[in-house]
Design a protein that fits this description.
- This protein has one helix spanning 124-127; strands at residues 2-6, 9-23, 26-39, 45-56, 62-67, 75-76, 81-90, 94-105, 111-122.
- It contains one helix and nine strands; from the N terminus they run βββββββββα.
- The strands form two sheets. Strands 4, 5, 6, 8 and 9 form a five-stranded antiparallel beta sheet that branches. Strands 1-2-3-7 form a four-stranded antiparallel beta sheet, with no helix packed on it.
- Helices cover 3% and strands 69% of the residues.
- It has a single domain, classed as Immunoglobulin-like, CATH 2.60.40.1470.
- With 128 residues, it is mostly beta strands.
């Protein structure tokens, strides 16, 4: 598991390779990732947006951004945590992701970025 803390918000990432699948008549490798967000700060915060850079060793970098995560904009009290699972498709068997969440401190209304550590996406065969 990979972890990073920004302004008292801990991001933990666990990845999994889920095999291959055809999309648009092209073979893709399917990866899932589970992200846990833990509020270690003393303030109530809300996740408002996400920004991802997805690196595929055989393709251009893909940028994904938008409101919330998996249709949610979670609010975390101090010591709360929120976990979600998502995934991506790569044309190659190796890649990586990194990004950030935009959050707002609901007590001061300060908006800030919480960084998501770079994590590797690698097929099981490459790990042996």
């Amino acid at each position: 598991m990979i972890e990073l803390v920004t302004k008292g918000i801990k991001i933990s990432v666990k990845t999994n390779y889920n095999g291959s699948s055809y999309r648009n008549n092209r073979l893709h490798h399917v990866f899932s990732y589970t992200i846990s967000i833990t509020n270690q700060s003393e303030n109530k915060v809300k996740l408002t947006d996400r920004f991802w850079k997805i690196f595929d060793s055989q393709n251009q970098t893909e940028i994904v951004s938008g409101e919330g995560v998996v249709g949610q904009t979670p609010i975390l009290e101090p010591n709360d945590h929120y976990t979600y699972k998502s995934g991506c498709f790569l044309t190659s068997n190796i890649g990586a992701m990194k990004g950030f969440y935009t959050m707002i401190n609901l007590e001061t209304y300060e908006q800030f970025k919480v960084y998501i550590p770079t994590f590797q996406l690698t097929t099981t065969a490459l790990l042996n």
